[in-house]
Amino acid sequence: MVMQALADSLFQEAKTVEASSASACYFPLDNGRYEVKPGFMPFGSCLGNGEADKQVFQIDGNFAHYRQTKLLARGERLSKYYQTCNYSHSVAGALTRSGLPSGIARLIIDRLTQEHPHYFHSQQLANGDLAFHCQLTGEILYLDANYELRQVETQANQVFPPYASTLDAIAAQVQEDITVICRCDDGSNWLSAVHLCYPNHWSAEEKVGYDFTTIHAPVAGMEKINRRAIAIVNTMITREPMVRFAWGLSTDTRLNHHPEPPANVSINDWLGRQFDRDNPRLFLRIERQVIWGLPEYEAALFTIRTYFRDCREVKKDANLRCKLSSAIQSMTPDSLAYKGLEESKENILAWLEEV
Fold this sequence. Notes:
Blueprint: H1 2-10, E1 41-42, H2 63-76, H3 78-81, E2 82-84, H4 89-92, H5 103-115, E3 120-124, E4 130-134, E5 139-143, E6 149-154, H6 166-171, E7 176-183, E8 189-195, H7 204-207, H8 212-216, H9 223-226, H10 229-238, E9 242-250, H11 267-271, E10 283-294, E11 299-310, H12 311-314, H13 318-329, H14 333-338, H15 345-352
Antiparallel strand pairs: 1-9, 2-8, 3-4, 4-5, 5-6, 7-8, 7-11, 9-10, 10-11
């Protein structure tokens, strides 16, 4: 009964952009083509969302659902959604040579307190610890001088399982998934940390520890990009912060599409790719990805924020409908198979034309 209740909870769906309050709105297929490319833009580029476009971490009226989805995923099995591999103390947030805290934890906390001071603030304690206050969750994270998690104080129920690390605790305060890529002196790179509670058909356990090329090998159309993997990783780590977008189609707005369904759930029910022409539900699943390099540590923070746009609303706009149809038609057979659209392409295109 407990496992079935958990499975039922994991099927809960997020609100679409159209139904949300204060939600950023993106349409990354504006050229009407499906393309596999880096697509890097300078972070903060104006994309029609005002201050939200300048934020690494975006907060909207969907926060409670995103938070609950993370807690449910962690409760199912933490290691299924959170993994690290050679994630060093210096990268995670230890002291620099100057004695000042830096690294991923410091970067995230600094961005949250700058971007959302009404929700987040930090306080230096007399003993040298840092108290990071998160109003949205009612939690206070106590971190030592090396930004290691020491204690969690909460106004609500204790999180289960308890937070395993600072990164695990901080990731539970935001609506983004978080990954960290690192590089050695010899140029080799690897995925060193993954907190992925909103997976889009990929697994933290399967990807952690592998390099850029291996991670992206299953992606249809990645061959040219993978041949430039070393240069792309260098760009991620050494250049100014960037933003990029990815998109696909889903028949639900469930954030968690881990390739391994929960116990007692069939894979077909879990995938979210069975388009029904007689009862059509179709959504653009859009990922806003921010890349923030830490060249001092040969590392980069990579955040993934998931949004859904209702294709019923999209197709009411003739221009957007035309671009979406054109993008689907431009997909190669391999891309259609990778995106799970092989069998439903023609039905989706026909439905889009029914205005």
